[in-house]
Automatic annotation (TrEMBL):
This is Pyroglutamyl-peptidase I. One of its GO terms (cellular component) is cytosol. InterPro entries: Peptidase_C15, Peptidase_C15-like, Peptidase_C15-like_sf. The keyword Transferase does not apply. SUPFAM superfamilies: Pyrrolidone carboxyl peptidase (pyroglutamate aminopeptidase). The keyword Endoplasmic reticulum does not apply. Keywords: Cytoplasm, Hydrolase, Protease, Thiol protease.
Length: 196
């Protein structure tokens, strides 16, 4: 299982996605996740780095599940993204660049949806006794989050997801975000029949 958060950008000097992923790494996935190995990595907010990293990650690790995590300034809950887009990447990354043609993967379809049932994942989180809530979204935002998600979906849409988290303490701590992410992963692993 590969679990990735993003590094700092713009007003997100401390990126809640990476803080939540680091916290999850400390907490662990718990007994519900069985013997799944968790690999966590921080990704820079750079289009070229994301493109190269995504291909290398799939080739090197051959993961059973990839969960990308990013921060959204407008999110107020754990936001489970259903799909990603190929075009419209006109926002500058931290190096001041956009991808060629504002496109993620030349010649690919315009929109790809994950095969994982994100509504079922959402229900699993919301029915838990934890104090975090989740929603499902169809718009990851045409920035690096959407870009990395589309990149992975073109490689394997059966085993790729993306989760947006709100900024820290708006309203959740890193620990609470990590707990929400843990619940999401358990639900995904159950769908994939990787755990009971």
């Amino acid at each position: 299982l590969i679990f990735k958060g993003f590094g700092p950008f713009a007003m997100h000097v401390v990126n809640a996605s990476w803080e939540a992923v680091k916290e999850l790494s400390k907490m662990g996935l718990g007994k519900e996740a069985g013997n799944v190995k968790l690999i966590t990595e921080e990704i820079p907010v750079i289009y070229d780095a994301v493109r190269q990293y995504t291909v290398n990650m799939w080739n090197t690790h051959k993961p059973q599940l990839v969960v990308h995590v990013g921060v959204s300034g407008i999110a107020q809950e754990i936001t489970l993204e259903k799909q990603a887009h190929n075009h419209g990447y006109d926002k500058l990354d931290i190096c001041g660049c956009t991808p060629d043609g504002e496109c993620c993967v030349e010649g690919a379809e315009e929109c790809i949806e994950t095969c994982i049932d994100m509504q079922a994942v959402c229900d699993y989180i919301n029915q838990s006794d934890k104090k975090v809530t989740a929603v499902v979204s169809t718009d990851p935002g045409r920035y690096l989050c959407d870009f990395i998600y589309f990149s992975s979906l073109t490689i394997n849409k059966s085993r790729t997801t993306f989760i947006h988290v709100p900024p820290l303490d708006r309203p959740y701590s890193a620990r609470q975000l990590a707990e929400g992410l843990r619940l999401a992963i358990v639900a995904m692993l159950q769908q994939l029949k990787l755990v009971n």
